[in-house]
Specification:
- By secondary structure, the chain is mainly alpha-helical.
- It has one domain: Orthogonal Bundle (Recoverin, domain 1), CATH 1.10.238.
- The chain is about 75% helix and about 0% strand.
- It contains four helices and no strands.
- Helix 1 runs antiparallel to helix 3 and helix 1 packs across helix 4.
- Bound molecules: calcium ion (CA) (2 copies).
- The site of one calcium ion has 7 residues, from loops.
């Protein structure tokens, strides 16, 4: 499934935003990250994911093709995301 790469790209993009550094999240430059700043970043990320990929993600994990993700399909989705994120973290540890 090509969706795997899309999800990996998204997970990587999110991870990269968080690892770009403190100053990227500290948008008002006051030296601390507050809840609003974190919320803004997470909102932007999730909006990008929702706008670009919601239908593709549904299609990729909707194994019985009914147009919805049921609980079983959801569990597989979470497993997949977990594997991808874990893979990214493992790679990162390798590089460090
Ligand atoms: Ca701040
Ligand atoms: Ca389904």
């Amino acid at each position: 499934m090509c969706i795997d790469n899309d999800i990996e790209d998204l997970a990587l993009a999110g991870y990269e935003v968080l690892t770009q550094g403190f100053h990227v999240l500290d948008t008002n430059g006051d030296g601390v990250i507050d809840a609003d700043e974190l919320k803004d970043v997470l909102t932007e990320l999730s909006e990008a994911i929702i706008e670009d990929n919601a239908e593709e993600v549904i299609a990729a994990f909707d194994e019985d093709g009914d147009g919805h993700i049921d609980e079983e399909e959801y569990d597989e989705f979470v497993d997949e995301i977990t594997d991808i994120v874990q893979g990214i973290l493992d790679d990162h540890e390798h590089d460090a």
